[in-house]
Every structure is written in C-alpha cells, then in structure tokens.
Amino acid sequence: MTVYATIAELEARHRDQLTLIAADEQTGVRDDVRITAGLADASIEIRAILAARYAPSELAGLDADSLAVLRIYCMDIAFYRIALAFSRLTDEIRERRDQAIKRLEAIAAGKGALTTIAGAGAGAGDGGEVGQNEVIVVAPERVFTRERLGRI
After folding, report:
1. What are phi and psi of 30, to 5 degrees?
2. Domain residue ranges of the chain, discontinuous segments joined by +
3. Which residue from 7, 39, 104, 134 has the fewest beta carbons nearer than 10 Å?
4. What do you get for the CA distance between the two ends of the chain, in Å?
5. What is this structure's pTM?
6. How far apart are CA 113 and CA 119, in angstroms?
7. What is the pLDDT of residues 64-108, one digit of tens each?
8. CA 4, CA 1: separation in Å to the nearest integer?
9. Lowest-pLDDT range, 5-19, 21-35, 106-120, 128-142?
10. CA distances (Å), origin 53, targets 43, 91, 107, 117
11. Pfam families attached here (predicted)?
C-alpha cells in the first residue's frame, strides 16, 4: 500500500504544530503510532476518491509532480485525522482538510489531472506520450479497401 506522505515530511511542514497536536495525553511525548495511522488513513481516503477516475495501476505510476500534489493533500487530511484522534481539532485544520478533499474530488471529476511517468503512452502508434483524456484504438489492418475491392 502506497502512503503518500511520511512522518518526516509532515514534521518538516508542520514541525511545532505536529508536536502540540500529537502529544500523548499521559506522557506529553509525540505519538508516532497514531501519526502513522493518520497518514495511512489519509492515503486510503485519497485512493478512494481518485478511484472514480484512475485505476490502481495509474496511481502506482504517477510522476514526481503528481506525487508532490498528493503529498500535500495527504498531509492536510492526515493532520485532520491526527487532531481528531487527540481531540485537538481546530477550524484551521478542518478547513485545510475540506479544501484538500474538494481538490481531490475536482481531479476525480476531470477538472484537473494527475500525470504518470514516461511509458504511459506505450500503446500509442507513434511511440509518443498519450494525453490524459485521449482515446487509443488498436485494430487489425482493414480487410476491405478500395484497392482490394477493385480487384474482385
């Protein structure tokens, strides 16, 4: 299972806030187990939303730019789940999560797109890359052509 963000990336983006939100109630030490669970849950939620448009194989072949976008959305959704688990949810955290969900739903609806690494257009006749919404038709050579019908 692909996790779109790690604890290190979440800590780099929200260092002080993560320590405050994810501190254990008893010890005051950051609870990395709950943080990891929040990141995994956020990644599952992202895949569930994007399944409306992308197959699992397409999500597995995303390029660096698309993964960077999903990483940002994953961190916002995970931060919401972590804050919820610790009963420390704020309006700002909820708003970031809601915006991430809206953007993911827009991508799933076709108002945006994720790109894959080179080789996604391997089925194209000219060997070039295939666009996100292009249709590729592969068929055998025509049987009835003007030249062949003229010989009958």
Report:
1. -60, 130
2. 7-108
3. 134
4. 59
5. 0.74
6. 17
7. 999 999 999 999 999 999 999 888 999 999 999 999 999 999 999
8. 10
9. 128-142
10. 16, 30, 8, 17
11. Phage_Mu_Gp36
